[in-house]
Write a structure and sequence with these properties.
A 5-stranded mixed β-sheet has the order 1-2-6-8-7. A 3-stranded mixed β-sheet has the order 3-5-4. With 185 residues, it is α/β, with parallel strands linked by helices. It is 22% helix and 22% strand. The protein has 5 helices and 10 strands. It is globular and about 50 Å long. A hairpin with a 5-residue loop joins strand 9 and strand 10.
Length: 185
């Protein structure tokens, strides 16, 4: 998916490792909740999942289907221009508005939705009046996007901090220094 299969075959000469990865992914949790406050998901919300109990009822041990609530959790995106729900232009999941985020958080007594599915150039982006944060962890995505990446630290008091970072140098690339001599400063 998005070149991962090809990358595995190119690096390891076989698709076996890709199969192990996909089998492992099929057993990983869809969501997590940090200290009953922060809802963590790969993508976003689903119109058919109003409560955390609804999410717990999903049979997780399978490949993510092309539609339905599991698909929505993986591929939906927040959108500041959408009021409630709209079809996603990506072809899977939905886009959801601030009213949807606010209702989900209130219904489930949560404070924040943290997600990661969407490329953002600065590595993170707040949406829906700081009720949703997208944290993107792949710098220079696909070796061509030039984006920063970020991670979010959450303290024991649930204060969050985002930390941005650049990609590591690629092996074999010549690294040019862009520092200016002191007499130019």
């Amino acid at each position: 998916v998005y070149g991962f299969y090809d990358e595995c075959v190119r690096k390891y000469g076989t698709a076996n490792i890709w199969t192990v990865f996909t089998d492992t992914f099929d057993h990983m949790p869809l969501t997590a909740v940090i200290e009953n406050s922060i809802f963590c998901t790969h993508g976003g919300l689903s119109p058919s999942l109003e409560t955390l109990d609804h999410i717990h009822q999903i049979d997780r041990v399978k490949e993510v289907p092309h539609d339905g609530s599991m698909c929505d959790l993986m591929w939906s995106d927040p959108d500041d221009e959408t009021v409630e729900w709209a079809m996603s232009p990506r072809g899977a999941g939905y886009v959801f508005g601030a009213e949807v985020s606010e209702k989900f958080l209130q219904t489930n007594h949560l404070k924040l939705i943290a997600r990661a599915h969407q490329l953002v150039n600065e590595g993170f982006k707040w949406s829906h009046e700081r009720r949703v944060i997208t944290v993107w962890g792949a710098p220079n995505y696909c070796y061509r996007c030039g984006n920063q990446a970020a991670y979010m630290e959450v303290s024991e008091h649930l204060n969050s901090t985002t930390v941005q970072y650049e990609p590591a140098p690629r092996r074999g690339e010549i690294q040019l220094s862009c520092t200016s001599p002191e007499y130019f400063l």
